Amino acid sequence: MTDKRVRQLRLVVEAEDYDAAVAFYRDVLGMPEQAAYEGADAARVMILDAGRATLEIANPAQKRMIDEVEVGRQVAPRLRVAFEVDDAAARTREATAAGATEIAPPTVTPWQSLNSRLQAPADLQITLFQELAGE
Questions:
Q1: DSSP-based three-state secondary structure for 105
Q2: Pairing relation of β-strands 44-48 and 33-38?
Q3: Which terminus of the chain, N or C, has fewer Cβ atoms within 10 Å?
Q4: 31: how many CB neighbours lie within 10 A of its CB?
């Protein structure tokens, strides 16, 4: 039996335009709201369900290689968020229509996924990926 000391990965992101970020991640990407809280001085937070979470730790060479495969050049900041989606091409179109900026269109990777790279609300660089193996 595995000793699971960590039960959940929660990425906390500060968003200057809170409403736009919520609309993008909740409504466009379809991440259901788990909870929302308001506090003093107009403090607001919403917790969205992102499905299963993993922490991907890559050394600098791997980060450069992923940038080369997905984008063709070095563009990623130190932190990038990747979301597995059902249809990377359709979700990319929806995301760009909702205000994300496409850095690179959906591209088939050597590890058999279809990945797009976007600059999204809350100043996050994101990858939308669809696993192709088994399709």
A1: strand
A2: antiparallel
A3: N
A4: 18
pLDDT in tens, 56-68: 999 999 999 999 9
Name residue 108's amino acid.
V
Cα–Cα distance for residue pair 114/107, rounded to 1 Å: 5
Question: What is the spatial distance between Cα 83 and Cα 94, in angstroms, rounded to a whole number?
Answer: 14
Residue 135 has pLDDT above 70, yes or no: no
One-letter identity of residue 54: T
Residue at token pair 């193996």: 133
Distance CA(106)–CA(95), nearest Å, equals: 12
pTM of the full predicted structure? 0.89
Burial class (CB in 10 A: 0-12, 13-18, 19+), 122: middle
Query: What's domain 18-131's architecture?
Result: Roll (3.10)
